[in-house]
Structures are given as C-alpha cells and as structure tokens.
Amino acid sequence: MLMEIGQKPEHDFSEPIGMLEDCHKRILHFMQTLVTLAESAGAAQLNGDDRDSLERSLRYFQKAAPRHNADEEDSLFPQLRTHSDVQREPIFERLAALEADHRWAETQHFEVEAIGGRWLSAGVLHSSDHARLRTLVHSLWRFYAHHIEIEEKEVFPAARRVLSSAEREMVGREMAERRGIMWPHAPNIIP
Asked: How many Cα atoms occupy the beta-carbon half-sphere of 5 within 13 Å?
C-alpha cells in the first residue's frame, strides 16, 4: 500500500489517540521502506521507483515525524502528567524516557537523511554509506518496534482511561493547530 504524507488517516482530531496510532502505522511503513531500500537497492543504481520511495520516506521523517513527537511531548504527555492517578503508575516514569527516545531517534534520522541525500544526488551509495545506512535503519526499526509497543500498550490505554473528553479534545485541537488546521471546523472556513 502506497502511503503519503497528508494521507487521510483512519481517525480524525476528535480521536487524537487514534490519530497517534495511525501515525505509528505510517512510521513503521516508511521505516520498512528504508530497510528494504538499504537491503535491496543499496549498491545498485537507484531506479525511478526506488528514488521515489526513498524521497517519500526521507520527507516523512523530516516533516511529519517531528509533528508526531510534538503531539506526544507537547500535548498528550502534559495532559497525562496532570493526573495524580497516572503519577502513581509506572507509566508516568516512562514518559521522560519516551521523550529521550525521540531525541535519540532524531539524531539517527539526521544521519539517515544525510546519507539518503548523497544517495539521491549520486544515484548510488558508496560502500561505507551503504554499510552505515543498513546499520542505522535496522537500529531504528528495532527502536520503533519497542517504542511504539510501549506507547500503544501502556501510554495510550492510560490516556484513554484517565483523560476526560475535554482533555482529549484539547489534545486534538493542539494537534490540528500544529498542522495549520482549525478544529473543529468553523462554518465557512476551509482548513
């Protein structure tokens, strides 16, 4: 299935936690694309389809992934931290670690982006870049699998349990604003 930045998600801003899960699917899709490209196309001349897939994947991690991190760190996690019942749960301690995980992934993606840019420019990867890219994308793949599992099995269920509908609406509104969308849509306003 071809995925695009801006593709209509399964959920909308009225279900912000569902939107975060939709984003996780896109993260895993684009990460798998990078793994596949690094494994199968690495040393060969970059063909048109692979070039397009590489460009889309790099663009996703440059543009959309930072908004996802902000959705969690600036909207969802602060709402969770206001609940004393969450603070008594081990999940509260996880939030800081998840934020640190985001910083680690960002540094890895900067290097992937640099290698990917050289690959797009030259059309082929030099052997040292190929080896490093393979190491990076496999490490990121393992990281995302673990990170997303924690969020979806621990953090998001806690959020669904403790956040009021008004708090979830606030998270959704902030997520929409981060994308330049007015939510909920006002009459006669086109986002």
From this structure: 16
Q: What DSSP string describes the chain? A: ----TTPPPSS-TTSHHHHHHHHHHHHHHHHHHHHHHHHHTSSSPP-HHHHHHHHHHHHIIIIIHHHHHHIIIIIIHHHHHT-HHHHTSHHHHHHHHHHHHHHHHHHHHHHHHHHHHHHHHHSS--HHHHHHHHHHHHHHHHHHHHHHHHIIIIIHHHHHHH--HHHHHHHHHHHHHHTT--SSPPTT---
pLDDT in tens, 101-150: 999 999 999 999 999 999 999 999 988 999 999 999 999 999 999 999 99
- Distance between CA atoms of 13 and 127, rounded to whole angstroms? 44
Q: What is the CATH number of domain 16-177?
A: 1.20.120.520
Residue 179 neighbours by CB under 8 Å, 6+ apart: 67
Q: Where are the domains of the chain?
A: 16-177
pTM of the predicted protein model: 0.87
